[in-house]
Design goal:
Helix content is 50%, strand content 14%. It is built from 15 helices and 12 strands. The chain has 402 residues and is α/β, with parallel strands linked by helices. The N terminus is likely disordered.
Length: 402
């Protein structure tokens, strides 16, 4: 395994859309999602982002806020974000109020991720023109942030929502709530994030077009941030990509035969984002995903190489989020996350280096240490024998009456 670049991420998490193929018990699928977050909490992952979708049958969490409230009761450390709240679907006051409530219920562990909405079928059912979604998102984001900051009452009339002398009853827990804006390929996400001083959530970072746009997106972030008096902080930039890890590449490929084809079919034939390879052959799918950099189906070493690749392309970012999926069965999926936590995260956080350095130092000086230890043991043995001889001599003299 190679060493990561200094600008590599130090925080890790999950982006849970989720992707559950229809035909199974949805209640059990949601319960597995909650169990997964508890597993990640124990493994030391930092955060989880929960999606909002209303159609297409795979991404079955309709309210990330409700899911987060449940997950918060089953976790201790994991920060929980909406990934993302589709702003055109919500009145800004109602969404801001719900998030502030969650910030108190979670003692500050909640984050707000925002976007225009990913599925055109969702927008269609609500009568929202797809061409208006990104403008609606920025209008709503401006209002939500004004409400959260609470400097003064908020009045807005955008034509699709109104605010009249609006204010929140509560401040966020700790007086702050982290906000991140989703980005795929277009500059809309980084433009909004830079203007409003938010973090960036790059959902398409490993897709070819999204990967190519990483440097461009950060340039947009910096330019817009400077224009509006904000600072673009790479530590607040999150990149998302799918992985499945196993001890060997061969085992990883066998694992994903369970569900990779279903995931690919969803993106090819249902979702509006045709990011998956154009093939249904299992071996070709694995090869294409690895070759294009869309994801990693391999070992922890392959995962480290992928994150280094993203670091080099982006110029540095703060958090890597594993895109959740059902490529493998539950047991193999949980093992994949454990391998990531055991070997991949420490390579970037530096936590594995001190024990290794201590081992190497002890090994390099072993001869001296063993020699000292042997001398100490020999000395104590000799002291013991001398004591016994002295005791026998004294006992002999006492027996002679002298």
């Amino acid at each position: 395994m190679s060493s990561p670049t200094p600008a590599g991420p130090r925080r890790f998490g999950i982006f849970l859309a989720p992707f559950h193929p229809p035909g199974q018990n949805p209640t059990l699928a949601l319960e597995r999602d909650l169990d997964l977050l508890a597993h990640l909490d124990r493994l030391g992952f930092h955060e989880a982002w929960i999606g909002e979708h209303h159609s297409a049958g795979h991404e079955i969490i309709a309210s990330p806020e409700v899911f987060i409230a449940t997950a918060a009761e089953r976790t201790r450390h994991l920060r929980l974000g909406t990934g993302v709240s589709s702003l055109p679907y919500h009145h800004p006051l109602m969404l801001a109020d719900r998030m502030v409530l969650l910030s108190h219920l979670t003692r500050g562990r909640v984050m707000l991720g925002v976007g225009p909405g990913a599925l055109p079928s969702d927008a269609f059912m609500m009568g929202i023109p797809v061409a208006r979604q990104r403008d609606m998102m920025e209008e709503a984001l401006e209002a939500v942030l004004a409400l959260l900051r609470g400097h003064e009452p908020v009045t807005r009339d955008t034509g699709w929502f109104q605010l009249r002398d609006a204010r929140l009853q509560l401040r966020p827990y700790g007086d702050d709530l982290e906000v991140a804006v989703a980005a795929m390929v277009s500059p809309s996400g980084p433009r909004a994030a830079g203007r409003h001083g938010c973090g960036l959530l790059s959902l398409g970072a490993t897709q070819t077009a999204g990967f190519d746009a990483l440097g461009y997106h950060w340039g947009v972030m910096e330019e817009r941030a400077a224009r509006y008096g904000n600072t673009a902080d790479r530590g607040d930039w999150r990149l998302v990509g799918p992985m499945h890890l196993a001890p060997t590449r061969e085992q990883a490929a066998r694992d994903v035969a369970f569900g990779l084809a279903d995931w690919v079919t969803y993106f090819q034939k249902v979702a509006a984002l045709p990011i998956a390879p154009d093939t249904e052959d299992p071996e070709q799918l694995v090869a294409a995903i690895n070759a294009t950099g869309l994801g990693v189906i391999g070992t922890p070493g392959d995962a480290i190489a992928q994150i280094e690749r993203l670091t080099a392309q982006s110029g540095g970012f703060g958090t890597y989020l594993l895109m959740a999926h059902d490529w493998a069965d539950t047991e193999a999926t949980l093992r994949s996350y454990e391998l990531f936590a055991r070997y991949v995260a420490p390579a970037f956080q530096g936590s594995a280096r001190p024990p290794a350095a201590s081992r190497d130092w002890a090994a390099a000086n072993r001869a001296a240490f063993i020699g000292e230890a042997t001398d100490a043991i020999t000395s104590k043995i000799q002291e013991h024998e001398n004591e016994r001889r002295q005791e026998r001599w004294q006992a002999g003299r006492a027996g002679q009456g002298t």
